[in-house]
Write a structure and sequence with these properties.
Shape: globular
Number of helices: 21
Distance between the termini: 66 Å
Low-confidence stretches: 10-15, 534-544, 549-557
Helix content: 40-55%
Strand content: 5-15%
Mean pLDDT: 92
Number of strands: 10
């Protein structure tokens, strides 16, 4: 069975009237303004982000690149030290400029959510017949459904947000849903590749977009050529956003996505295992088939570390099946519908097989509203605006009301978004992270001459034969200057004691708390001594620290 593509008329698709363009600009400004306002209010009322991932690697990875710590520190942020740092570099730059203005920082960090809302509005509006009463308002309600999902809403205005890659994917869907030239298809591929380069978790949806490019490109050789052109542009986009980092990892560690997939790359720097998180994968085929239903009706931890309830994905699947069935029955579909369905079906299948982590499902959350619009389009086109528009907004409000959002953690509201005061580590110190608690962020506030190494975490195991564990042991053994340890006794009780014994170390007198609004001063910094040696000097308190200057600016090391 072949499916005919119902392309929009060229005049409507490519030559929007000035009034239409002006309307879109106004809508974009409204979405961005609302998102910025909400981000500022969240920072003031709830406090800035203070989640585990921020403390572990989002803050560290960006500043590590700015400060010249990459390749000098060893696994300070555990295996997450090796994630492509593009988004975290952007966060570090924003934090350096706006740390003393938390509301402004929250406003800027909220903008990607607003852009996602606008792009979702554009997509939902395209899926509605032009004569639909209240078309723009219905599309706005559909967009609100998407941007308030449990995955995207819970990470709003924080570095955990997946919205920037999702915006790239939405842009690609919009391009594939218009009459395609080679340039438009290449632009769609470039955007999909950028999403993957920024965040590898976008890869399942980029594959769905490649399938969409083939389906909307025509049958036979034309479809194959469309797929190839899209894939080539996507590879270029991915290389542009993440290629330099992947190349460095490959040259340094022999694995472009180190330490993942090491059962394939066999890097000597890590154990020869996949090192992927399988905690949230479905337990059997039946659970896999019905997975969205499990977190639609009641709060659960099947797809998240914290309880979550959200019916959006389940509703999206119902809508997708109805829309697909209707298209097959009629043997025709709009290209935008084909693109949305391909991304939904292929992206979800690969997501469930690879991750099943709800945070990574933001692109499909955003597509839920447009799918609900698509399934209702025949009815909406004949309905009265006075009835349909309130119903659409009531549905959006109802979904927000029943959603249980995981709270990843916030720092208390205050004059600074991140307020950290570590002890004054002497120049040339080696700081050993003694347990797997998220402590790497402290490095951003230490002198760049101070080296940080993770001694026992999700990548490094004391005594393991891989080169990373041996490099950490060698760095500790060769350290002739001051030696310090960081530990979080409440979060990882007893773990630091085991690590100290493994490396022949002991705490010296002079332990102090790292003053931090991110974890309520949970981290303890202790001078260390080798067993049988004289204790190291005590810490000296300093004024509240700011992120250390970059390596290039400081001239150190």
């Amino acid at each position: 069975m072949t499916l005919a593509l119902a392309w929009p008329r060229p005049a409507a698709a490519t030559r929007a009237r000035p009034a239409v363009r002006a309307h879109r600009v106004v809508v974009l400004a409204v979405w961005l303004g609302l998102a910025a306002t909400a981000g500022a209010l969240a920072a003031v009322l709830l406090g800035p982000a203070g989640d585990y991932d921020l403390r572990n690697y989002h803050l560290y990875d960006g500043f590590a690149l700015l400060q010249g710590r990459v390749g000098v520190d060893l696994a300070a942020a555990q295996l997450q030290s090796f994630y492509a740092p593009g988004l975290d570099l952007l966060y570090a730059a924003l934090l350096a400029a706006l740390n003393r203005h938390p509301a402004a920082l929250g406003a800027v960090l909220g903008l990607p959510q607003g852009l996602a809302g606008f792009l979702t509005w554009c997509l939902a509006r395209r899926l509605l017949p032009p004569a639909t009463p209240g078309r723009s308002s219905i599309a706005a309600a559909a967009a609100l459904i998407g941007v308030t999902g449990a995955a995207g809403g819970s990470t709003f205005a924080g570095p955990m947000s997946e919205m920037l890659p999702a915006c790239c994917l939405l842009g690609a869907i919009l391009l594939l849903g218009t009459p395609l030239s080679r340039r438009a298809r290449a632009a769609a591929g470039l955007l999909a590749g950028l999403a993957v380069g920024l965040k590898l978790t976008a890869a399942p949806f980029a594959v769905g977009l490649a399938v969409a490019a083939a389906l909307t490109g025509g049958g036979g050789r034309r479809g194959a050529a469309a797929f190839g052109g899209f894939a080539g542009a996507a590879a270029a986009g991915a290389a542009l956003a993440g290629g330099a980092w992947w190349g460095w990892l490959s040259a340094r560690y022999g694995d472009p996505v180190f330490p993942y997939f090491n059962e394939v790359f066999h890097s000597a720097w890590a154990a020869p295992i996949a090192d992927t998180d399988t905690r949230f994968l479905p337990r059997d085929v039946w659970q896999a088939v019905a997975y969205p239903l499990f977190w639609a009706a009641r709060p659960c931890t099947l797809v998240s570390e914290l309880p979550v309830r959200d019916p959006r994905i389940a509703l999206g699947w119902v809508a997708a099946l109805v829309v697909a069935g209707r298209a097959l029955w009629r043997r025709r579909a709009a290209p935008a519908v084909v693109a949305v369905l391909a991304v939904w079906v292929v992206g979800y299948g690969l997501w469930e097989a690879a991750f099943s982590i709800l945070r990574y499902l933001v692109p499909l959350e955003l597509l839920t509203g447009p799918l609900l619009v698509a399934v209702s389009a025949p009815v909406l086109a004949r309905a009265r605006s006075a009835l349909v528009v309130p119903a659409a907004w009531a549905l959006a409000a109802g979904l927000i009301a029943v959603t249980v959002y995981p709270d990843w953690g916030h720092a208390p509201p205050g004059p600074e978004a991140v307020a950290v005061r570590p002890p004054a580590f002497p120049a040339g110190s080696l700081v050993v992270l003694l347990d797997p608690s998220p402590m790497a962020y402290v490095a951003a506030f230490a002198p760049v001459s101070v080296r940080f190494v993770g001694a026992d975490n999700n990548l490094v195991r004391p005594g393991a034969p891989d080169l990373m564990a041996r490099a950490v042991a060698a760095a500790i053994a060769a350290q002739a200057g001051p030696l310090w340890g960081l530990e979080a006794p409440a979060e990882s009780p007893g773990a630091a004691d085991v690590t100290l014994r493994a490396y022949g170390l002991a705490r010296a007198p002079g332990c102090v708390r790292v003053r931090s609004n991110l974890d309520a001063d949970a981290i303890l910094a202790c001078p260390l001594r080798r067993l049988g040696r004289t204790p190291a000097p005590r810490a000296v308190r300093t004024a509240p620290a700011r992120p250390a200057a970059s390596h290039a600016a400081s001239g150190r090391r």
